[in-house]
Amino acid sequence: MALFTSTFVLLLTVAVANLVAQWLPKISNTYFALAAGIIVALIPGLNHLVLEFENETFMIFILAPLLFFEGQITPMVRVGRRIPSILGTAFILAIVSAVVATLGLHGVFAVSLPLALVMVAISTPTDATAFESVVTGRKISERLGNQLKMESLFNDATGLILLQAGLLWLKTSEFSFGQNVGKLLVSAVGGAFVGAVLAGAFMLFRQALVRTDANVVSSQSLIYLLTPIIIYLVAEEFTVSGIIAVVVAGLVHNGEANSSRFSSPRQMYFGLQLMNFSSEILNGAVFVILGISLERIVSSQYRQMFQSVQWLWLGLAVYLLLVLCRVIYAYGFIARRHWRDSWLFALGGVHGTVTLAMTFSILGMVPTGQFQQVILVETVVIIVSMLVPTILFKWLLPQDNDQLSKSAILIRLRREMTAVGIQRVQALDLTAEVKQTVIYELRDQNNTNRLRLFLRRWRQTVSHHAAITYLQSCDQRWAMMQAFASEREFLTEQARQHVVDLNLIHDIYTEVLMSEALVVDPYSRMV
Q: By C-alpha distance, which of 314, 373, 378, 367 is closest to 171?
């Protein structure tokens, strides 16, 4: 019951945060989710309903599916072309940065080398979702954006191996660089192998099933949702990287989706909607959890925070050393000797919930005093890594006017498109009652039917058989099809004239096709 209550509170918080975010489109949804999590933690009546952060649960049920979905929307051919770059940022850059930052903390703050490595290793993974939150409303080059995304998909495993090395060093006072590098390679390559093999097996099974009369969309969808969880657990059981396994599995599924889109259109469409829905909810949940955890950390460590501020300087030092390493690496290998792009890449290495999960994973493995220091240091790293680029990108990156004006353009397009559809219906030879029914439904496309009109329509639908007859009639469906055809012609002409960005046209065109499916699809009818 406690798990159900906790999940309910988290999901409700995500829903409210996403709704509130629509009122301020210039601010990323993730910040609203973060703030909502902090508010929940500040309210005693709600805070006690949410369970304490559990690292394994988070990795299995939130992070693994999220990375799987991230991998699925990434074409494998794009990854193949970027393998040298991915290896450089996710492994070489991560290891070199860890060495430099560890030595820096040891030299400046006299922190023991093993503890310094633990702090730096936890700060190594970057977060693609957190990065997207800091660039909301700004334009960044596609090349840099893809580079940062690829890095965040694969550098989690490096951070985890470095953390294991630091913990072992802290426990035994012995460190073997060669052994740990070998372990990293085995974990990464083994994870990729396990992910590819299992994803291939799942793919072949589902593709064989979809080509038989025994195919069931609900069963296929359940298998799809369970795939990242199963692959993660199997990979971890083989002591290889479960994170890389689910990322590679997502890449395999991307190739599958693009090779069999029309073998079962209903299944494909539902799967895509399921993926988009799950990704949005999980992304929101990640930052709600982050907000709750940060507030709890501050509350529990309140006294220690004011006894000494060394944790603050350590956190700032970790962040600055990692950023400087990223700048130098980007200048030499990514940004083609451009300092501006080098700084953009460096600042784009935002830290989020993976860092938090790794922090809680060492609970009980280090002395209490050291754990309290580590958790405060990582809190600083997470907050600073999000705040600094959010502020600086307002000067370093141009404003994305297309994104900011998207809502107004869509409203205008829907209004003009609906007018074309209504004009077509009015020219048809139909009874007044059918015309009225069809025009009402067409006006729903641009939300011009007010709440009072909706209530009147609802009363007619539930109390008069004639209303249902109109909705079911062949004339009504034929009129709707004629209207939708006219609307699609209007949008096609807009695309030909390059009046509006093609992506916005496709957005509304898809809505028209979905509306059309609701009229003709026997599985979608409600009357």
A: 367
Give the per-residue SS3 of 325-378: HHHHHHHHHCCCCCHHHHHHHHHCCCCCHHHHHHHHHCCCCCCHHHHHHHHHHH
Number of H helices, E strands in the chain: 26, 0
Q: Which two tokens stand for residue 27?
A: 């601010």
Portion of the chain with pLDDT greater than 90, in percent = 51
| CA 46 centroid distance within chain | 25
Buried residues in 115-147 as b, exposed as e (16+ CB within 10 A): bbbbbbbbbbbbbbbbbbbbbbbbebeeebbeb
Predicted pLDDT at 142 = 87
Residue 519 binned pLDDT confidence (cut-offs 50, 70, 90): confident
Q: Is 138 helix (H, G, I), strand (E, B) or coil?
A: strand
Please say if the pLDDT value at position 345 is more than 90: yes
Quick one: 501 exposed, middle or buried, by C-beta within 10 A (0-12, 13-18, 19+)? middle
Only one residue has tokens 């609970």, namely 363
Token representation of residue 277? 């829905």
In terms of C-beta density within 10 A (0-12 exposed, 13-18 middle, 19 or more buried), how is residue 482 classed? middle
CB 151 within 8 A of CB 349: yes
Bridge partners, 138 (sequence order): 399
Q: In whole angstroms, give the CA distance from residue 316 to residue 352.
A: 16
How far is 348 from 390, CA to CA, in rounded Å?
10
Residues forming beta bridges with residue 399, ordered by sequence position: 138
Question: Please, which residues have CB within 8 angstroms of residue 319's CB and are 6 or more apart in sequence?
Answer: 123, 380, 381, 384, 385, 388
DSSP letters spanning 396-420:
HS-B-HHHHHHHHHHHHHHHHHHHH
The number of angstroms, rounded, from the C-alpha of 52 to the middle of its chain's C-alpha atoms is 23
| Contact partners, residue 420, CB within 8 Å, separation at least 6 | 486, 487, 489, 490
User: Can you read off the two tokens belonging to residue 446?
Assistant: 């641009």
- At residue 29, the pLDDT reads 85
Rounded CA gap, 263 and 241, in Å?
33
pLDDT for 18 equals 92
Please give the Cα distance from 34 to 350 (Å, whole number): 15
CB distance 152 to 59 below 8 Å? no
**For the chain, how are helix, strand and coil distributed in percent, rounded to 5?**
80, 0, 20
